Amino acid sequence: MVSVGVSRSRLVCPCGNGESEEVGQPGESNEEHVMLCPDCKDKYVYDPKCICRNHKVAMRPRGWVRKGNYDMAGTLNNRSINL
Fold first, then answer.
1. Average of pLDDT values for 26-51?
2. How many Å apart are CA 32 and CA 73, to the nearest integer?
3. How confident is the model over 16-29, as a mean pLDDT?
4. Which of 1, 3, 5, 31 could form a cystine bridge with 24, CB 3.0-4.6 A?
5. Is the per-residue pLDDT at 27 higher than 80?
6. Is residue 2 included in any domain, yes or no?
7. Whose CA is closest to 48, among 22, 72, 26, 79?
8. Against a cut of 0.85, is the pTM above it?
9. How far apart are CA 62 and CA 47, in angstroms?
10. Is residue 59 part of a domain?
11. Whole domain around residue 20: which residue ranges?
12. Position 43 in a domain
């Protein structure tokens, strides 16, 4: 059930043959991202960490990334914390 004020957006998935869905309250940071494409569902995960290429561009979430890349980034991050 969708409550009042909740927005839903359908977006093209990484492979381009399906969709993902973004559900959340406008202006809130607790959006939910769901992969609807059966081909991408097992290959991609949503990464909410923000990236910024330079200071003139607003920060934005990384978005859908390959699971292997996401896992590797987490491993490298954990190693750097333990240094």
1. 84
2. 21
3. 82
4. 31
5. no
6. no
7. 22
8. no
9. 6
10. yes
11. 7-81
12. yes
